[in-house]
Design goal:
D-Maltodextrin-Binding Protein, domain 2, about 450 residues, 18 helices, alpha+beta, globular, 2 domains, seven-stranded mixed sheet
Length: about 450
Amino acid sequence: MPNTKRRRLVATAIAVTLGATALAACGSSDGDGGSESSGPVSLTYWTWTPGMDKVVKLWNDGPGKADQIKVTAQKQASGDDLVAKILTAHKAGNAPDLVQAEYQALPTLVSNDVLADISKNVGDAKSKFADGVWQQTTLGTDAVYALPQDVAPMMFYYREDLFKQYGLTVPTTWDQFAETARALKKKSPDTDLTTFSANDSGLFAGLAQQAGAKWWTTSGDKWKVAIDDPATKKVASFWGGLVKEGAIDNQPMYTPAWNKALDTGKQIAWVSAVWAPGTLSSAAPSTKGKWAVAPLPQWTSSGSVTGSWGGSSTGVTNDSKHKTAAAKFATWLNTNGDALNALAKEGGIYPASTSAQLSGAFTRPPEYFTNQPDFYKIAANVAKTTAPSAWGPNVNVAYTTFKDAFATAAKNKSDFTAALAKMQADTVADMKKQGFEVSE
């Protein structure tokens, strides 16, 4: 890989602030609209959000019609499959005008010149989002590579009735969480507070984020990978210790056994994100109205920070011939009240826009949580405390190793920090194999 390409990849690292000259090296953009043609514009948007065609229709029948900008939503797969498809399309010079991208995929897309800098076309959009969320779409630079669409602040879910039955107090710190797990085991040996699961890497990444981890950063003109940093080791040791002593379960989530444990009260809490009500409604239907939500336990008694487990954004590609028009739609989609209400209704998303988190569909609790009228008020307050994250160009490799190494460690009740070291080593090895410069 040419050194210029490596330096451009390095320049995308989150937490690095670059000047306008350096940003230009990350990919050209006619974001000011100077080279765009006049007249009716047709845009294509690749997205996996359910019901996006209905949301887009609001645009096409309203502001889009007035501005002669028509958008067509094309349903796609999510995750790594969509990233691979976007990269392939870009290499052929025919990527769509707009793409939905998970936050952890942005460094990969920017480093491959897929996404344009639309900072000149989004107005005061920054003020609509929490700082920690906005940072994920700027990669710590003065550029704007996407508009935040949905977020997934992490929270603590628990069976309110069973906590009362067992005389448990909702933990506000992780130390209290551990003591709660042990106390429950003494009172009901066959019952678990929760489980450690390795089949969804986003959970562990969010917990590490809350603890202050920044897995990918840069040092000079090199990447620095710190997946095994002190913050993440603390998280790994904490959960590994609970699994080893049998204070919590070690089974994966989303299985029939896990569903049954939730539904029957064998597992009475779940560290999850704002989207949990939808999962619980299908996994534990008979417990509707029995769960409650609280902020995530903290590492210090005075702490107030959460991690993210999911979330996505809307970016404009460098292949688009109508970047200004595309940025206008992306801004409308993620900041306009009508659009956000439609996204919530049709797509079931929790908006990144802070003003939308307490309006429209979010003025009443999810149906599964009718017992907790302030559900979304709690969620909105928690979302404001989202910690910054630091993603890199090979998140998929780190996540794959996590699933393998941590699943084995959880099953065997062995050392989680050893699994973390494996995750670090595999990620660094892959980056070097790809030609990245990585500092030791």
